[in-house]
Amino acid sequence: MNNSQDLNLNGIIADVKARYEDIARRSRAEAQAWYKSKFEELRVTAGRNTDSLRETKKKVSELTRVVQRLNGEVRSAKDQCCKLEAAVADAKQHGEKTIKDAKHKLSELETALQQTKADLTQQLDEYQELMNVKLALDIEIMTYGKLLEGEESRVSAEGGFPINISARHSQGGLTCGPEPGFA
Fold first, then answer.
1. pLDDT tens, position by position, 138-154
2. Which residues are paired to 174 by β-bridges?
3. Reduced to 3 states, what is the DSSP secondary structure of residue 108?
4. Measuring CA to CA, which residue among 180, 173, 170, 166 is closest to residue 141?
5. Is 4 helix (H, G, I), strand (E, B) or coil?
6. Which residues contact 177 (CB under 8 A, 6 or more apart)?
7. Residues 168, 175: Cα–Cα separation, whole Å
8. Alpha helix stretches (DSSP H) within the chain
9. What pLDDT, on a 0 to 100 scale, did the predictor assign at position 11?
10. With 70 as the cut, is the pLDDT of residue 6 above it?
11. Is the pLDDT of residue 49 over 80?
12. Helices then strands (H, E): number in the chain?
């Protein structure tokens, strides 16, 4: 064999090394370009996300204020509801008491009415009895008046001095009294 052909290992190694360095440089450049593009994409995405996050925070803050306001209104409504329920309970209790008092007064008035009716009936009975007595007395007075007139006529006829007896009406009754008279 011919050793004259010296393998130029150093040249081959240098050539392979140059190729590898070129491949490494290109790979590094591609990687850097890829990383730069990815970094730019992430930066843009992060910017969009930051804007979105800012908007979301603003919405959350606004919603928090709305929730706090609504919670205050709910508490106020609950307080008002409790007050109204207490007022209704008081009114109901007062109404029941008023109805009870009214029923008691009605019962007292009905009792008083029955008593008044009984008293009126008793007074009417007494009045009727008194009217019967008065009528009997009026009849008796008229009878005595006629008897006295008859006696007066008899005494006058016998020659005695004349006596004048007059009968007067007084409040629905007759009143008789002697009136001396000279004829």
1. 999 999 999 999 988 88
2. 169
3. helix
4. 173
5. coil
6. 165, 166, 168
7. 5
8. 9-157
9. 85
10. no
11. yes
12. 1, 2
- For residue 166, is pLDDT > 60? no
CA dist 130 and 45 (Å) reads 121
Q: How confident is the model at residue 1 (pLDDT cuts 50, 70, 90)?
A: very low
Q: Which amino acid is at 65?
A: R
| pLDDT value at 161 more than 70 | no
Q: Could you identify the residue written with the tokens 């007139």?
A: 149
Question: How far does Cα 65 stand from its chain's mean position?
Answer: 34
d(CA 87, CA 67): 29
What residue type is 95 in one-letter code? G
Q: Enumerate residues 6+ apart whose C-beta is below 8 A from 121.
A: none
Closest by CA to 179, choosing from 169, 168, 170, 171, is 168
pTM reported for the whole predicted model: 0.42
Residue 141 · residue 173 · CB < 8 Å? yes
pLDDT at 170: 52
Tokens of 140: 């008796």
The radius of gyration computed from the CA coordinates of the chain, to the nearest angstrom, equals 69
**Tokens encoding 159:** 């020659």
